[in-house]
# Entry
Amino acid sequence: SKFYASLDLGYSLTKANQLQQFSVRSTFGYLAARWSADASYNNVYSSREDTKAVRRIDANITYRFFLPNDYYLLPQVSWLSNTEQNLALRTTSKLGLGKYLIHTNHTYWGVQAGVSFNNEDFSSETTTRRSGEGFIGTELNMYDIGDLNLLTNIVAYPSLTESGRWRIDYTFDFKYDLPLDFYINLGFTLNYDNQPADNASTTDYVIQTSFGWEL
# Structure
């Protein structure tokens, strides 16, 4: 009963231009008395004739060790790859401290801050960027509110080693439960970087509506 998981899958094929679209959105987690572990994997891929394929992959592994007075330690590793920002792979390792401001059986809201290390490979650049960052963020999770669930978080990353650089990651997930552990989901993810790779956009985002199943 302490393990939970969800999986959304999507695929479409259009004869015109042989347009294909594929998406995966998944979460896995375990909650113990003194700690919790969560992982997610999301993939969006689109291709058609005579056009470069569009792809986006993001994933993370998060561990929380609960401390007295609703504080917690937060180690996390995340990965991001997307075509819009010419990002072949960004690996971000974080270590921080968080505190729950609201912590009930159906809602938690917390804030967190710490440091992170960034390792980035861009498809438009031959060198690898490595940088140190601070981070500060907040997360709201509302669950078991009838058939509705809401999860949203935003994290800002001011760079400690690159002058004037800062990034923002934002996610929003709204889920409505259906019978037999099925559900419908609306998800939105935004990544902003004010100093992106050469010839790349400062912003990438994805909106997904999906049908899924949870354990």
In short: The mean pLDDT is 90. The longest strand covers residues 128-145.
